[in-house]
Amino acid sequence: MEYGLLVMGAPYTSPAPHSALRFAHTLLAQGHHLSGVFFYHEGVHNASSLMAPPQDELNLHDAWIELHRAHNIPLDVCIAAALRRGLASEAEALRHGKASFNIDAPFELTGLGQLLTLQQRCDRFITFA
Amino acid sequence: MEYGLLVMGAPYTSPAPHSALRFAHTLLAQGHHLSGVFFYHEGVHNASSLMAPPQDELNLHDAWIELHRAHNIPLDVCIAAALRRGLASEAEALRHGKASFNIDAPFELTGLGQLLTLQQRCDRFITFA
Amino acid sequence: MLHILTKALNSDAAHQMQQAVGEEDIVVLTEEGVQAALKTHWEGWQAYQSRIYLLAEDVAAWGLNTAVTANGLPTVDMNGFVTLTEHHPQIVTWY
Amino acid sequence: MLHILTKALNSDAAHQMQQAVGEEDIVVLTEEGVQAALKTHWEGWQAYQSRIYLLAEDVAAWGLNTAVTANGLPTVDMNGFVTLTEHHPQIVTWY
Amino acid sequence: MAESNSLLVIIRHAPYGSNLLREGVDTALVAAAFGQPVDLLFLGQGAMALLKEQGSGAPGQKASLPTIDMLEMYDIEHLWTTEESLAAIGVPTSMLRNDVQFLKAKAMPGFLQQYAQILNF
Amino acid sequence: MAESNSLLVIIRHAPYGSNLLREGVDTALVAAAFGQPVDLLFLGQGAMALLKEQGSGAPGQKASLPTIDMLEMYDIEHLWTTEESLAAIGVPTSMLRNDVQFLKAKAMPGFLQQYAQILNF
To answer: Which residue spans adopt a coiled-coil conformation according to this UniProt entry (chains C, D) (predicted)?
Structure first.
């Protein structure tokens, strides 16, 4: 089956990203397909390349990238939710006159239309929050 | 009197930073002194220089800097809470091999000792969360 | 002691605060806590009579001015809130 | 429909979920929701009998294995959770 | 609401307490702009967004009323809540906007099943 | 606990649900390292951190038990909770660590007043 995931919890504050990652790996191991993960609300913080947790804790940013590399899963981040919370790609940083940025490929800033398209395209759509 | 504030809520998710800012301006207007603001838990996101809310909304990062400029208020950010949440100064970014950073003066990364020192030094210490 | 409640009355924060409030303590309801204006039967209104306040700016923001006036509930503005903190060395926020 | 509860039983999320669960619906308790293992008198255990599950990994993490065994409560592991979602096109998370 | 792509957006958090009301409404607006049939259901604290007087906005924060008003401009006409939600937060129906429709909590399971998709905020 | 700089750290949120337990305990550890007398009070969901069995940690997250065990190494000996908190979350005392002390909710106002400083997590 075609799955889509919506992640609304922040790393190191909500257990939701951990649950979402485990769910993603499990569904893939069962032979299902994962069309994409959409990060919204506090979930946008999962995309931060500046995340530097202690070495004995999972780096969630890196864990999502690993998921992407192994299975080519799109990682879409709501642009409006991201910008107000201090997350910007190089292009957005430039547009807003910021000197640096913290969102990089494979994470992509995109609009809410992407969330709705993902939900409609998938057989199953699950929120982690 | 000598006041200290602890901010634990994130901008655009919790109303706590707004309440803290209003409280700070009000106590200063009454002739009290503000020894410092400590940002902990999700409150560390207040320090992000990459924050870019829509133009019709208050930029909380800039509002804190304005408070600092007008009254020379120290703005301390818990370093452990910040690093795991994707907030780093230039020095910390370098130390963790990150290509960019999002915490700049007057915000300062510091340890929890600073929180306790602030609380002990102040006549009144108030948490916004 | 001064207690600040920032969450609704059915929250864990509110229940824990209610156990912590002493006989001389003051209570200020802010942010989501101002929804208490709609609950005139809440036992806190009786238990903390003349030492409980709704933060006026938050009452207005949450659209509760009419309810506060109709129910004759006590408010304090941000200036008054700061003044209350002057009189209480211990201040605890329940969130 | 499949309902996922990630918060404790005294939360707004839990109360709202209880109103939403239909007679053929399935319930999975995850994250803070696994604390339901300590509340064997919770009406949900009766109301959703044979269609409610605790997520096993979260039960272990929250230190509730003994309680779940002692009370004979139904669990599902992450594999079983995915299988449950296969059978329910509509999935709603209460948080 | 029998269309195969109909969406229900459930709002369960109060205005200003978090950004969830705003982010939920934004999702509904985008869905409507895409031509997707969309309704809103306000539960518990979310029903606070339906107060008529709601308007000034928390100091320094954007008011939620204009956001709710936008729904009508996008032809989102059905704003639902439950009588139980209003009772729980102590809001009499006289304090509500005129365009709110009521559902009994008992009817909720059947109500939810009408929608192809549900998003919970 | 009559010292003028005594600190009470109140833990009110469950392990893993947020990082508040961890961040509250870290604050207590730093206070102790600074030589400040510090006690902990676990209320409501916070009392979940006192379960004996607590130990595996949410998958991918660090366990909270070692953090709690650290308290003893820093000479923080007083871990308080209330009987009402345990009743509310349904935890019998037999499930708790042995070093927990009990307070009646009724006694809480007097208990809090013993401390020069309180931090609520």
So the answer is: none
Q: How far apart are CA D94 and CA D44, in angstroms?
A: 15
The answer to whether residue F59 neighbours chain A at the CB level (below 8 Å) is yes
Contact A51, B85 (CB under 8 A): yes
Quote the pLDDT of residue E70.
86
Other C-beta atoms lying within 10 Å of the C-beta of residue E28: 25
E20-33 helix and E65-73 helix, angle to the nearest 10 degrees: 10
Structure tokens, D93: 């998370």
Yes or no: is domain C2-94 CATH 1.20.1440.230?
no
Q: What is the pLDDT of residues E57-92, one digit of tens each?
A: 656 667 777 788 888 888 898 999 999 999 999 999
The structural domains of chain D, with segments of one domain joined by +, span 2-94
DSSP for F1-24 reads ---TT-EEEEE-S-TTTSSHHHHH
Q: Do chains A and C touch (3 or more CB pairs under 8 A)?
A: no
- The whole-number pLDDT of residue B61 equals 98
User: How far is B42 from chain A, CA to nearest CA, in Å?
Assistant: 8
Closest C-alpha among C62, C58, C95 to residue C77? C58
CATH (domain of E17)? 3.40.1260.10
A53 contact residues in F (CB cutoff 8 A): none
Number of folded domains that form chain F? 1
Q: Sketch out chain B's domains with CATH numbers.
A: 2-128 (3.40.1260.10)
- Whether the CB of D62 is below 8 Å from some CB of chain F: the reply is yes
| B-F contacts (CB, under 8 Å) | 32
pLDDT tens-place string over residues A9-62: 999 999 999 999 999 999 999 999 999 999 999 999 999 999 999 998 999 999
The predicted complex's ipTM stands at 0.96
